[in-house]
Amino acid sequence: MPVAWLSAVSTSDVDSAGGKGASLGELRDAGLPVPPAFVVTADTYRTFIEEAGIAEDLFEAVDVDSEDSAALAEAEQRARELIVDTNIPERVESSILAAYDDFDGDPFVAVRSSATAEDLPDASFAGQQETFLNVDREDLLDRIKRCWASLFTQRAIYYRNEQGFAHEDVDIAVVVQRMVDAEKSGVMFTRHPSTGDPEITVEAAWGLGEAVVSGAVSPDNYTYDRKAESVETVTVATKKTKHVRDDETGETVERTVADDRQDERVLDEGELAELHSLGELIEDHYEQPQDVEWAITEGNVYLLQSRPITTIDDNVDESRNGHGNTVDDASDDSDVLVDGLGASPGTVTGTARIVGTLDQLDKVNQGDIIVTEMTTPDMVPAMKRAGALVTDEGGMTSHAAIVSRELGVPAVIGSETATSTLTDDQIVSVDGDRGVVVDGHREPSTDDGSEAQSSAVTDQSGGGNKPMTATDIKVNVSIPEAAERAAATGADGVGLLRMEHMVLSTNKTPQQYVADHGEEAFVNTLTDSMRTVAEAFYPRPVRVRTLDAPSDEFRQLEGGEDEPSEHNPMLGYRGIRRSLDDPETFKLQLRAFRKLYEMGYDSLELMLPLVNDAEDVHRAKSLMREAGIDPAKRDWGVMVETPASALCIEDLCETGLDFVSFGTNDLTQYTLAVDRNNGTVADRYDELHPAVMRLLHDVIETCREYDVATSICGQAASKPRMIQELVDTGITSISVNVDAVQNAQKEAKRVEQRLILESVRD
């Protein structure tokens, strides 16, 4: 049969009634107050797509990369067209309309999607499919097809991919339920949704519950301590709008709440007591915590839905947030920019992105903070990329808040003023435990300052305590994707981030990329990559080397056919000489730096490669100014990779640079006339050769006279003897590969302790 009434449905019928339908049938069978309803079964949907011959096209259309926003949008549109534009078989139409006619009085109904992979113990699929309220007989069949089509919304496709559910294995039923013209409505959690604490949370607003579920309104919040059997807190929100049925059109519309009711408490003690009692009964029946939607009309409470809470963390330590920071480490309340409900735990610092419409979600990059008026399930793909979520409206039980907890994305909900207080590109810290947003540039406070006075800090890599050294031990990062692992070593910053890897990953030369996508796209590609590393290390410094790819590497890329043919590319068209010869491409690189500076990433340091003399530097500084970067206000420096730059170090220091960094790989081969890629003479290659070491010592001593910082980032930096020699001479920092950080820290500390002992003995 195409339809089944709730009286014939229970939790054993998920395959035919879907999660929502099965749950409602179970609640009704348990004697709980559920409005009358029937289910258009999942078999009906499956028969529809197969008999109409659209199944193959449908599943092919939604087989897309879920991280590709454009592909998701196209898949959703195509799936909707296939389903909505196809007629339901006449026998099925007749059965559905006959069931509707069994309701008394030709009522309005709610048409609710009920997927077979929905409301499961380990995946909520919250808000993935559509619900249509106040539907009459004339529009019923169309709304059912739109529910079927909503099985393939962008958010549903994305979520199933993330959860590992094959699209062709998921069917959808539709619940057709007599409307409750609610005066009051909301959601109830029978346990705390993050910690599982024995407290019932109820959120309530005026009118239909869609306003609470969608996050369109910040609801009242009531908590009931199940152990103490008493109301613990009552938070009355300002409820400016409500969703109601328009008497003339029958459609669901948003109306302004009367001034005298906006700050009025929605639920009285008797209604709260009844909801608490129902919550206890529902959890006892299912033997697990539940998320319940409810409505009240004419003094009667009705249950509209119940599903398992899937976001409770069994390992939650209440003294810590989800990212390992103690709650007490958060900034003082005087630092708070906006506050709201802590809907999902964790503390994250990132760049705020104000999202007013869904088409603005593309500007949300990895680690950004989404700031929006209200949360919607369509934001799920962007939320996966985001570091945190902040909203003006919504509550603990809104669908997007549920998904935030499921994704592990910290969230502050119902702040009221976030979109007007925060600005695009502002650096903020979101504390999902305390429900506050603070300035991201402020250092978190500690209880007594003892950590700041400690002689060692915890090594994030799990390898014990990080030795405190006067010489900074930094790390080399080849690609932005490695930033998180590199930051976890406890390194003092990034000594070398290579821009050429960002370009090579596009598989196009810069000129070809600009020709295909435009200058702004190229700048954004560099910006996003650099920001990934800067974010992972902030506020530790990140030193980024401008483009230094030799012609043989560029020749392998699309557009590389015009690259010069060189007998020895390492001695050819690369480094600063390429940038000065092609200033327009160099300016695009500089624009990426400027963009990040404007975002607040003052920890970035700009480094020029393969410099020979002061003339190279003066020309580069002129281009920096043209690109809007003031060399006097930003940290910048040069690579010392040639004997020429080492011998001209005094002239280089007088250009006003802040640091120099040794590239010992190139410096060694150019000093010794040994091609490091030539196996025939590989045994002659020695970074510790007296000539190389003399150049290093002379440069460090001169830089100390000019108060210019010195660093080494070549392969030789990992060698204990090189560390000994350079720390002895007074180098400022040493940058090594990820796997060598701990050994370099220990070796530098050992040398420094020896120097201290020698000075004391003298």
- SSE class: alpha/beta
Biggest sheet, spatial arrangement of strands: 14-21-20-16-17-18-19-15
Describe the sheet with the most strands. Answer: 8 strands, mixed
Number of helices: 28
The amount of helix comes to 25-40%
Form type = elongated
Ends distance:
98 Å
Report the portion of residues in β strands: 15-25%
Question: In angstroms, what is the radius of gyration?
Answer: 32 Å
Number of strands: 31
pLDDT averaged residue by residue: 83
Low-confidence stretches: 118-127, 315-331, 443-464
Question: What would your notes on this structure say?
Answer:
- The chain is an alpha/beta fold and 762 residues long.
- The protein contains 28 helices and 31 strands.
- Strands 14-21-20-16-17-18-19-15 form an 8-stranded mixed sheet. Strands 24-25-26-27-28-29-30-31 form an 8-stranded parallel barrel, surrounded by 4 helices.
- The radius of gyration is 32 Å and the shape is elongated.
- Catalyzes the phosphorylation of pyruvate to phosphoenolpyruvate.
- One of its GO terms (molecular function) is ATP binding.
- Pathway: Carbohydrate biosynthesis; gluconeogenesis.
- It comes from Haloarcula rubra.
Key structural traits:
762 residues; alpha/beta; eight-stranded mixed beta sheet; eight-stranded parallel β-barrel; 31 strands; 36% helix; kinase; nucleotide-binding; Phosphohistidine_dom_sf; Phosphoenolpyruvate synthase
